[in-house]
Amino acid sequence: MDAEWAADLQAVLLTLKLAGVVTLLLLVLGTPLAWWLAHTRSRWKAPLSALVALPLVLPPTVLGFYLLMLMGPRGLVGQATQALGIGLLPFTFAGLVVASMLYSMPFVVQPIQTAFEAIGARPLEAAATLRAGPWERFVHVALPLARRGVLTAAVLGFAHTVGEFGVVLMIGGNIPGATRVISTQLYSHVEALEYPAAHRLAAMLLAFSFAVLLWVYRLRTRGSLLATGPATP
Amino acid sequence: MIEATLALSRGAFTLDVALQLPTRGVSALFGPSGCGKTTLLRCLAGLEHAPGGRVVVDGQAWQDGAAFVPTHRRAVGVVFQEASLFEHLDVRANVAFGWKRLAPEQRRISLDDAIAWTGIEPLLARSTQGLSGGERQRVAIARALAVSPRLLLMDEPLAALDAARKAEILPAIERLHALSGIAIVYVSHAIAEVARLADHVVLMDAGRAVATGLVGELLSRLDLPLPPGEDAGVVLQGEIGAIDAAWHMARLDVSGTTFWARDPGLPIGHRIRLRVLARDVSLSLAAQPQSSILNQIPATIEALADDTHPSQVLVRLRTHAGGGALLARVTRRSAQALALAPGTSVWAMVKSVALLD
Question: Which of the listed CATH numbers 1.10.3720.10, 1.10.1060.10, 3.40.1160.10, 1.10.10.10 matches domain A2-39+46-219?
């Protein structure tokens, strides 16, 4: 029983670490991408938007399968990481981070993009007439006005990473301490017919996910999950 | 001196202007909606890029050939039609937003002055949310002033306000130029605002600057697409020449020509601006000593033009004593009966004048 508890705790901690790292990286990389998507008139906007949104509709196994191929010893990314001396990413924590970032990308990029779009051009123009250069306009005007979108993005990205299963199984395997997260630990419990243990984890995830969504919907009064407007009504 | 040569096409709209404006006083870009005045203002601010255009302000090229100084490096302040305050900052932080980005030696206007001139001290600690429309616009003006601009661009700053709020802000804008010495370019489609504020007027129509001139001359012209009807009239500038305490009246001296009006309670010598509407001026071939009208001014007819209604004509007069042009509205029947024609000497019977400040 103690060993089972310890294994569960290990899975929970690994999940939190994974979700934390993924959320942080996605905020850093996703915010500029969201900014670009919100302001570009490029013909690449539609293809790139579709690419970002792909994980919303794609079975996670498809994404996991191609990532496995790409990051494997004969894949382009795999050969590159080997040449750089990093080794192979599949079945490592780093590989899990990369895969989870792609998988959770739309949940971070879309709320931020919507928030940027809702700000409109006027506050940024006003800032420009007040001597603020492009970077200052972004940091001191756009980001604060989009703060609710950024917050929603962080929470949704975190929650979605916590809840992933298919991609994790494909890329991570189910290695205790390295790639075994809550969802794959739960899967192992069920396979071993340890239903009470499975219940424990399943109920935890259920409660967590509901709490997150409740918080997000409390934050906003109308509109859909991914369309978070700016802080002002 | 502002020199601007700008051409821009946006769908069916074309802006094509070449003009010079003084960098002192208030210059109004005046014209109907869609005439391009806001686009012109945005080009001056650098918010719009008219390729190949040229904008030079007091010898500094803001745009010339391929060179284009971005908005945040132009010594410009802009007040938009909507105040466009930063909702995530309180009033004080809004006012200081641009000021704190200036090098100390560039701060010719202090934060305190910008706040005092717009009368927003009581609002400083407030959030932007609870402010009235008029308060928001005053904060926006203070915020623009605090960057010590060489040029303050105002894009219909009163258009979104009701009459009471307008009455609250207009005097503030009027004082602004006197207090700060900053040249103002003021975009408006409201002739009342232009008459009250502008020294210099650029009349715009369909993307072109059709006329420029001093407000007194330009608004009296009959050959321009000025707003017709009830608003037709002239603007005169002068000073309080005398007060008749017994009758509570003041004599307004406009370079040689005098008008008597209600005593506004201003001291002798005070600079004033008055508006004389065409509908308040009738014509007579002789002075009328037995009339109740006090202001009877000898003048010569310069031109006649059709008014909006076929029964009426507008008559442009030049006062004999100097003091500029007047417009009079008379019926076509009277014009024919009195044989009014260019060159005819008449008496302008001015029923009332409106003191603008």
Answer: 1.10.3720.10
**Could you state, in order of their start, the residue ranges of all structural domains in chain A?**
2-39+46-219
Q: Could you give the count of Cα atoms lying within 13 Å of B155 in the half-sphere of its Cβ? A: 22
B77 to chain A: which residues are within 8 Å by CB?
129
- Binned at pLDDT 50, 70 and 90, residue A221 comes out as low
CB-based contacts of A45, cutoff 8 Å, min separation 6: A37
Write out the two tokens for B28.
């109004």
Domains and CATH numbers, chain B: 2-218 (3.40.50.300), 233-355 (2.40.50.100)
Q: How close, in Å, is residue A145 to chain B by CA atoms?
A: 6
**pLDDT per position as a tens digit, B102-129:** 999 999 999 999 999 999 999 999 999 9
Interface residues of chain A, partner chain B, Cβ below 8 Å = 122-123, 125-133, 136, 140-141, 144-145, 147, 231-232
Rounded percentage of chain B residues whose pLDDT exceeds 90: 66
